[in-house]
Amino acid sequence: MRRTFTGSHLNDVVRLDNHYPYTITNVHHGERVLSLNLCPNYPFVTDIRRIYISESRSCDQLKKQVIDELRIRNKSPCDVFLSFLDDNGTWNGINDAYSKLSLFASNIHDNDYIAAHFRYVQQPLSIDSQAVLSFRLCRNTRLKHSFIDMYIRATVTLSYLKAIAIDKLNIYTKPNETVTLLLNKDNNDLWIAFDSKVEDCTLEELEFRNNSYICVDIKSITYLPGVRGLRNTGNTCFMNSALQCLSNVPQLTEYFLTSTDISHTRIACVYSELIKALWSEGSLSLALDTFTLVIQADLPRFDNYKQHDAQEFMNYLINILHTELASQSTIITDLFYGKIRSTVHCLTCKSNESTTEVVSFLPLPLTNRKKKQRLFEINHVKLNGDRQSCIIETDSNGTVSTLLHSFIDYCINENQDDNDIPDLESLIVAKMNGNDVKSQYSLDESLKSVVDNQISVFEVPLMISKHDRMYTPCLFLDNDSHCYFRPPIYLVTPKSNCYGQDVAYQIQKIIKHIVSVTGERPTDVFWTSYSSNYQRHLVSSMNENLYSLKSIIIETSHLCAKAYTSKSKQSSASNTSISQELTLSNLMDDFLKEADLDGQYYCSKCKLQTAAKQKSELCSPLPPIIIIQLKRFTYDIYSSDKIDTFIDYPVNNFDLGQYEKDAIYDLISVINHMGTLSSGHYLTYSKNHRTQKWYSFNDEVIREIKDNDEGQLITKNAYVLVYMRQKPQLEEQLISFT
């Protein structure tokens, strides 16, 4: 999220000069200052240092600031490459082709997590090597006589080649521009264009030839109707996400595009103007200045620039639109309003009392069927690096040790080989952030303090006495993208006098596992030290003391990393036990099933405080649009926590036939939430009914979700789901609309 510092906020920024070596005294009025989280212990998000820099500064200037902050000697910006932590908790490299661009143009956001890596001098590529291709880079397809010679390995990806070509030509691209690489193989007039669908393919896979001509074609993006960004004016991502979500409800958008009798309203009028702007063609994102002012005047709870709940805002907006339209039946009631009947059964006199409530959304708690039991999704990382997932049910009032005993019992029941059953002392329990370890849990830690239901269990060998050993992470690096492609493995090493040969046997087992999965050996193995930022080859340190050992890094080619990731996804997809337990249908059943009432119920018939049961049911007819909130936030008197449990939900053909005949729904929007309630970020995935394509709306940044990939639409960050009913009359409405 970004925050604009103006007025009094600007003074707050200037006062930071007393605490940080980088003064922000040249910030012009209204210019945005970014607060970035520098992680010196990459890939771990620990010992964070805050860096403040204007978004108009370049990536090179940010690198200089990072070098000074880390006090690294004899390094210049060209020796450094940066990476950032994305929405899914994965580190991604920032392309050096954008080093001269501003941080704004490079899509660096306020409060992003960044890390620095230092280049090592490599020998020049041998032109005679079969692994190296020679290209003739042209500025224009018509000027093939003027070119720049390029030499690059055949194993790099197309996206990497594009970035190098842009850098060689000194071209600066803008956020609203796309770059296409053109190839001329046979020195004729035929140029082949490669689109973004093959950006992750290597030049070898695309059959690029030696001595071919290449060129880059840059075009501005003209956004389609309904595919325009909304600017974040300071923690307004919750509002942007909710508005993009409602904008992609076809019937609602049709109404506000064509309605002419709402001039007497306030919020409905400005909402209509916003919808008309979103659904007109243009290449720029929109500002919500007028809309925000009206909202803040009519809804004072949103009259600040603090983070708010996107679902709460969307519900407020829907209800106030209904109120302003001043009719008993409005487009809002026709689309969103449904009814829930609640029946209470008195266990004393056996009488029933029913009430019916009008609702505009379904709030589904993320709780389990047994109050005293809790489900955990365990990602089990074995000694050799193999991974398996399973669902473990354990006592919710227990400790991490209780969970591990339940896990070991599961392993005993599932495995016939005693060698596959782990020992309690050989297990480490951790919370992951993508492929990085965020924190470790102690055995005596209460499960009530473990908010996330997805945790990782690492096996470690019992080779050294408990008091003399320490655990060192073994990381897996893609040498092309400089990103880690799988979670780490923990090696057991001596606390002191650790030599290369002490970890050699464990490394050999891991390499054997990688070869068995990919058929390819890693390219190198390094070790890093807390006392130095340099990497050293492990093979040359077999008889050396690995002083202050920090980590072991196994480096692979991009093809090897890609093959390993692909096999891991296939293995994960074949594990159906997880999706059978944690699905949207399960949550619906739990929400509507009969349950004991908490506390005593006063029965109006027998006039007693008595025990009772309550059951809810959806009333017919079901609304055309169903909004479902996955209640991920838990509140108590001391704090608020977030439940990151993955819930599997259907994209198409969500069958609610058990509540009403022929009630089949399709997903049209997902609001995702990353982070915590107080310092998180919202983005929306929505389906454009005109193009029938899915798009990611991240404030002003819009990305098409290629091939409507369901794997990208279903994530553990899903917070609000919007479903539209399949119905012939709805299809007729869409046809008339388009």
Give keywords:
Cathepsin B, Chain A; 6 domains; alpha+beta; 36 strands; globular; disordered C terminus; disordered N terminus; Ubiquitin-like (UB roll); 738 residues
Give a verbal description of the structure.
- The chain starts with 7 loop residues before the first helix and ends with a helix.
- The longest helix has 19 residues, at 500-518.
- It folds into six domains: 8-118, Ubiquitin-like (UB roll); 132-220, Ubiquitin-like (UB roll) (Roll), CATH 3.10.20; 237-332 and 623-737, Cathepsin B, Chain A; 338-365 and 590-617, ubp-family deubiquitinating enzyme fold; 368-459, Roll (Ubiquitin-like (UB roll)); 465-573, Ubiquitin-like (UB roll).
- The protein has 738 residues and is of the alpha+beta class.
- GO terms for molecular function: cysteine-type deubiquitinase activity.
- One of its GO terms (biological process) is proteolysis.
The tally of domains stands at 6
Mean pLDDT: 79
Name the poorly predicted regions: 1-30, 120-130, 573-580, 729-738
Under CATH, the topology of the largest domain is which? Cathepsin B, Chain A
Q: What share of residues is helical?
A: 10-25%
Cα shape: globular
Count of runs of 4 or more consecutive helical residues = 16
**How many β-strand stretches?**
36
Main sheet specs: 8 strands, mixed
| Second rung of CATH, namely the architecture of the largest domain | Alpha-Beta Complex
Which class do the helix and strand fractions yield? alpha+beta
Q: State the fourth-level CATH superfamily of the largest domain.
A: Cysteine proteinases
CATH first level of the largest domain = Alpha Beta
Please indicate the percent range of residues in DSSP E strands (runs of 2 or more). Answer: 25-35%
Give the distance, in angstroms, between the N- and C-terminal Cα atoms. 34 Å
> Using only CA atoms, what is the Rg?
29 Å
Quaternary form: single chain
